[in-house]
Design brief:
Length: 333
């Protein structure tokens, strides 16, 4: 099937900047290749990486003008290439892995993606919760379990705990029997974090996070630190880790240079999802982890706000940058 005459409303930006640089244009879809899938998008899940990409502060730069945007969406397969056997028309799917945003960003009514960028949507998830699942849980699973080696009984210190990935990390750690210590800016979201698996909640604005972590762990420290912030504060945060512990840095909310921790022996890993999603085996492990967790009810995607239609994308990005929400921001098409 060829779809080179079909166009779709698509979010693009022609210059770097804040949410106001986002515009909506009708773009012609490319022809469907033999290993491509056409997805009709039902909902978009916003990620902090997309705000950084839009502003030019992500780890790779957008191709301007007319860069697209977006990693994560849920939708329905509308057509498949001649060699695609993994999916059928009408199947509910999500997107997320192996996407280069400039060329294939998913903020659109329809997208053409290689089959490696599409995953089955877990049974029982509607479009909105489906758009709030894959990247958050795959980051938590891949970062803490596969890279960090988190085990039952381990303490794990989770920064930015009220974010989408933070909530997923709390639930993931609790599911394997680890002991999650949530770090958030204030105590305002304390009960919400406890409800999502946190064993302890530390408000960074009025708590010595390192000292309190040491107290909670009986002086030992956390076996794993799962950090979204980075920056010069990483060196101090590392002193909350146990002897021979592991720090996994998966985000850089503080984009100042990081100071190398000196409390060795200590393992420091940078984590990016492409490490896990680049292979079929990695995607399979993530998909089974998420689907089984949804099925047993321990993994509960948390949607903090829902916006209606592509025309609300600027407002959705403004909320994301305000940090006033918990969980995932979703735009429903």
């Amino acid at each position: 099937m060829t779809i080179d005459t079909i166009s779709a409303r698509t979010v693009v930006f022609h210059e770097l900047g804040g949410p106001d640089v986002l515009t909506i244009e009708n773009l012609e879809l490319p022809a469907l290749g033999p290993r491509d899938v056409l997805v009709r998008i039902e909902a978009l899940g916003l990620n902090r990486a997309e705000a950084l990409f839009r502003a030019g502060t992500y780890y790779y730069q957008p191709t301007l003008p007319s860069s697209r945007l977006g990693y994560e969406a849920s939708g329905v397969v509308a057509a498949v290439g001649a060699e695609v056997t993994e999916y059928v028309v009408g199947q509910e799917v999500s997107t997320g892995p192996n996407i280069e945003m400039s060329a294939a960003g998913v903020y659109a009514e329809r997208v053409v993606l290689p089959v490696e960028s599409v995953v089955p949507r877990p049974a029982g998830l509607d479009a909105v919760t489906g758009a709030a699942s894959w990247l958050t849980y795959s980051t938590a699973y891949g970062g803490m379990l596969e890279t960090g080696g988190l085990r039952p009984g381990d303490h794990v210190l989770i920064t930015a705990a009220s974010s989408g990935v933070g909530i997923a990390a709390l639930q993931t750690a609790a599911r394997i029997g680890a002991i999650p210590i949530a770090v958030t800016r204030t105590g305002e979201k304390r009960q919400h974090l406890l409800d999502n698996g946190a064993a302890h909640v530390l408000a960074a604005a009025d708590t010595d996070v390192v000292a309190e972590t040491r107290r909670i762990t009986g002086g030992v420290g956390a076996q794993v630190v799962f950090d979204a912030v980075g920056g010069p504060g990483l060196a101090e945060l590392s002193t909350a880790a146990a002897h021979d512990g592991t720090i996994v840095v998966y985000g850089w909310l503080d984009q100042r240079p990081m100071a190398m921790p000196m409390n060795w022996p200590l393992r420091v890993h940078g984590y990016a999802n492409m490490e896990l999603s680049a292979t079929a085996a990695g995607r399979r492990r993530v998909n089974h982890w998420i689907a089984s967790g949804i099925r047993d009810g321990v993994l509960r995607p948390h949607v903090g706000a829902v916006f209606d239609g592509l025309d609300s994308i600027r407002d959705a990005h403004r909320l994301m940058e305000s940090n006033a929400h918990t969980g995932k921001i979703v735009v429903k098409l």
